[in-house]
Each structure stands twice: as C-alpha cells, then as structure tokens.
Amino acid sequence: VDSSGDHFGSTKAQLLGCPIPIKAVLADQSASVFGSGCYKTGSAKITMGTGSFLDVVTAAPHASLNGLIPLVAWKIGQETAYLAEGSVHDTGVMLNWAHSTGLFENIKDTSDIAKSLDGNGGVYFVPGFHGLQAPVMDPSATAGFIGLNLLTSKEEMLRAILESIAFSQKQLVEAFLSETDYKFENLVVDGGVARNNFILQMIANLTGL
C-alpha cells in the first residue's frame, strides 16, 4: 500500500499557470471518514446520500460474515489504517421515488410531517428497490409496504419510508458490533439525507449513540 500523503506528482503547468503538487490521494469514503475526524480505531461514520455507507476504522482488515467489506482506509508514513464498510443501495433514491409518487411536495417538510404523527399506523417499508445489502445480502429482494389498510394515509407511508432508512443504519451498526468487540463512543453522520432530523433522531434512539 502506497502512502496517502506523499508527493504523487504535479498537475500540468498549463492548467493553472503553474504546476500544483498532489500531496494526498484517498478514495471517496476514506476521504469522508478522514475529513469527519474519524482517525482512531473504532471510529464510525455513516454517509447517507443516494445510498448509505457505514465505515468503521479498524486496526486490521476485518473479515465479515454479514457482508461488510474490508478496505484500506489510508496510509500515513508506515502506518496503515483499514475500514470495515457496509452499504445500503437505497436511501436518497427512496425519497426521490416518494416525491415522484406524491407522498410529499417539499423534501424540507418530510421530517416535520413524520414527527407530526403519533406513529406509523402499523405501516412498514422494505427498502429493496435494488435488493437488500448488508447484513441481509439478498439481491432478489424487492421493495414494498407492509401493513397497509384502508385508513392508511400518505403521511404514514412517508414516515414508514423514513423509518426504513433508520432501521437500515441500525442493521449495519449491529452487524459490525456483533462480529467484533468494538464499542462506539459516537456515530458521525453526513450526506444529504442527514439533514432530516427525524431520521437522525431515530438512528440515535435505535443505536443508543
């Protein structure tokens, strides 16, 4: 593994008027973990965008039975850090679908809509537009609502979708913790879907972080 912080060369001088040295090279999730201040072994971060990623800094490559992938995080000097990464393909894409089907008009209102309800009315959503990833690992799974009845409202359907995002993150966290003796002090969350306070609070409630 080459160092992430050495000199990798320079840009061509004609691009910006002079050569600019390239001092760091990181993959997207590794850069996100590092940029979020998750440097220590056991630090954990979730990114929620189109899909979701849980990345945990580990001292050695982590072999998983639950679909988590061992990755090189970065190398600084002679020290190499690793990541255990679990992914969920359907996060923001579900909100796009919910908007296109008329479950809400403004994405900024979705948190308040969900919080305005006493519960989900017994309605749950399976986030399987692209199968189910870690820890279920079933590419043949499909999306769907469970518990619909004649009184189900579109607000309850929206809440079920938001809850499914939080449940997915809980599953990723539990999958990693069930395989290791790591203890999370906190959980850093970023990405566009992290603007939704309802989802963040539910993740905190479900994980205790």
Pick out its properties.
about 210 residues, alpha+beta, 6 helices, two-stranded antiparallel sheet, globular
Task: Explain what the structure shows.
The chain has about 210 residues and is α+β, with helices and mostly antiparallel strands. Helix content is about 30%, strand content about 20%. It is built from six helices and seven strands. The strands form two sheets. It has a five-stranded mixed β-sheet with strand order 3-4-2-1-7, sandwiched between helices. A hairpin with a 2-residue loop joins strand 3 (about 70-75) and strand 4 (about 80-90). Helix 5 (about 155-180) packs parallel to helix 6. The chain is globular and about 65 Å long. About 35% of the residues are buried. The model has no long low-confidence stretch (mean pLDDT about 95).
Topology of helices and strands:
Blueprint: H1 13-16, H2 28-35, E1 44-48, E2 52-58, E3 69-76, E4 79-88, H3 92-100, H4 110-115, E5 124-126, E6 144-146, H5 154-179, E7 188-190, H6 197-207
Parallel strand pairs: 1-7
Antiparallel strand pairs: 1-2, 2-4, 3-4, 5-6
Helix pairs in contact: 5-6
**Straight-line N-to-C gap:** 33 Å
Shape: globular
Report the order of strands and helices.
HHEEEEHHEEHEH
Round the mean pLDDT to the nearest integer and report it.
93
Radius of gyration: 20 Å
Strand content: 15-25%
Structural class: alpha+beta
Q: What profile does the largest beta sheet have?
A: 5 strands, mixed
Strand order of the largest sheet: 3-4-2-1-7
Stretches with pLDDT under 50, minimum 5 residues: none
Number of beta-strand segments:
7
Number of helices: 6
Q: Could you estimate the helical fraction of the residues in percent?
A: 25-40%
